[in-house]
């Protein structure tokens, strides 16, 4: 009878672990992935800003090869990020999947930055982090629902 009770005890302990710990670990993994993505996005933006300051008359998309000298040591660009310089404004945006919570982590890393959000699918304008339409029409090259950070 004792082996049955031991098996029941360990079975209960395993079930409790699976119910409590696994969702917490997944949530932590999502947050870590989002934080890494946000840091990578900001580092990419800094490189494009440095390029734009060095080349004030440039318009269009800055090629990655041109940005290589402005990247921080050890930086590895996320393939999802790209940029556009148009009319004196700088747009850094995503072209592909962005990990969940990346926008939240960007807001935490740059709390004073107001021109951060997503491109509205219906209006083509920047919708801020808090969900308000900024009235700023974004270039047509930026895909709908893309993560966008504007600047100079």
Describe the structure.
The chain is α+β, with helices and mostly antiparallel strands. The chain has a single domain, classed as Beta-Lactamase (2-Layer Sandwich), CATH 3.30.450. Helix content is about 45%, strand content about 20%. The chain has three helices and six strands. It has helices spanning about 1-55, 65, 100-110; strands at about 80-85, 90-95, 115-120, 125-130, 135, 145-150. Strands 1-2-6-3-4-5 form a six-stranded antiparallel β-sheet, covered by helices on one side. The radius of gyration is 22 Å and the shape is elongated. The N and C termini lie far apart (about 75 Å). The model has no long low-confidence stretch (mean pLDDT about 85).
Offer a quick outline of the entry:
This protein is an alpha+beta fold and 152 residues long.
Number of domains: 1
- Number of helices, counting only DSSP H or I runs of 4 residues or more: 3
The CATH topology annotation reads as Beta-Lactamase
What distance lies between the first and last C-alpha atoms, to the nearest angstrom? Answer: 74 Å
Radius of gyration: 22 Å
Low-confidence stretches: none
Structural class label: alpha+beta
Total beta strands: 6
Mean pLDDT: 85
Biggest beta sheet summary: 6 strands, antiparallel
Task: Write down the CATH class.
Answer: Alpha Beta
Assess the beta-strand content as a share of residues.
15-25%
Second-tier CATH architecture: 2-Layer Sandwich
- Order of SSEs: HHEEHEEEE
Q: Strands of the biggest beta sheet: in what spatial order?
A: 1-2-6-3-4-5
Helix content: 40-55%
Approximate shape: elongated
């Amino acid at each position: 009878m004792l082996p049955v009770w031991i098996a029941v005890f360990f079975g209960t302990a395993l079930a409790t672990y699976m119910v409590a710990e696994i969702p917490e670990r997944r949530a932590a993994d999502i947050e870590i992935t989002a934080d890494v993505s946000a840091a990578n996005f900001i580092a990419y933006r800094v490189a494009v800003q440095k390029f734009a300051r060095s080349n004030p008359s440039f318009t269009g998309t800055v090629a990655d090869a041109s940005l290589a000298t402005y990247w921080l040591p050890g930086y590895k660009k996320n393939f999802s990020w790209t940029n556009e310089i148009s009319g004196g404004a700088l747009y850094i945006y995503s072209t592909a999947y962005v990990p969940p919570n990346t926008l939240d982590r960007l807001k935490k890393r740059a709390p004073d930055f107001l021109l951060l959000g997503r491109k509205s699918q219906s209006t083509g304008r920047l919708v801020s982090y808090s969900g308000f339409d900024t009235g700023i029409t974004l270039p047509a090259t930026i895909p709908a629902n893309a993560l966008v950070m504007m600047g100079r």
